[in-house]
Amino acid sequence: MSETPHTLINPAELGAAAGFSHGVLAGPGRALYIAGQVGADDGGAVVGGGIVAQFDAALGRIVAVVSHAGGASEHVVSMTIYTTVLDDYRSKRGEVGAAYRRHFGRHFPAMALVGVTELVDPAAVVEISAVAVVPVATWM
């Protein structure tokens, strides 16, 4: 993974940002708004294995959309994670983090994690939406 063309903003007075950035000042490019992605396989069926497997699959789908637009994971500037199993997410933070790093390395965009009561697909326990800013030079 290459270095992000965006500036990660983490003011000291807000405290350390672990696993996210407080803000991202996007570099030049075109905005790509990525619809909520659940942890599904290529056929659209939600994968088994719980939060870690679904989180991993959902991130893979986010990166696939960004890649198709000519970008890479480091072009993601914002991400919102919705989960129906917030306690499970918390207890498996290390495994979730390993899945995250497989797709994003040490690039941490602005993020929010939101506990919800349900998602559209009842088999899904996580859904992730994101925004990327793809540099014009790489855009389709």
Brief account:
Helices cover 26% and strands 27% of the residues.
Written overview of the protein:
This protein is an alpha+beta fold and 140 residues long. Helices cover 26% and strands 27% of the residues. It has helices at 50-68, 86-91, 93-104, and strands at residues 7-9, 23-25, 30-38, 76-83, 110-115, 126-134. The strands form two sheets. Strands 3-6-4-5 form a four-stranded mixed sheet. Strands 1-2 form a two-stranded antiparallel sheet. The relative contact order is 0.27.
Descriptive labels:
140 residues, alpha+beta, 60s Ribosomal Protein L30, Chain: A, 4-stranded mixed sheet, two-stranded antiparallel sheet, 3 helices, 26% helix, 27% strand
List the helices and strands and how they pair.
Layout: E1 7-9, E2 23-25, E3 30-38, H1 50-68, E4 76-83, H2 86-91, H3 93-104, E5 110-115, E6 126-134
Parallel strand pairs: 4-5
Antiparallel strand pairs: 1-2, 3-6, 4-6
Helix pairs in contact: 1-3
Q: Characterize the biggest β-sheet.
A: 4 strands, mixed
Fraction of residues in β-strands: 25-35%
Tally of separate domains: 1
Question: What is the H-and-E element order?
Answer: EEEHEHHEE
> How does CATH name the architecture?
2-Layer Sandwich
Please report the total strand number as a whole number: 6
Please report the first level of CATH classification, the CATH class: Alpha Beta
Protein structure class: alpha+beta
Uncertain spans: none
What's the alpha carbon Rg, rounded to whole Å?
Answer: 15 Å
Average of the residue pLDDT scores: 92
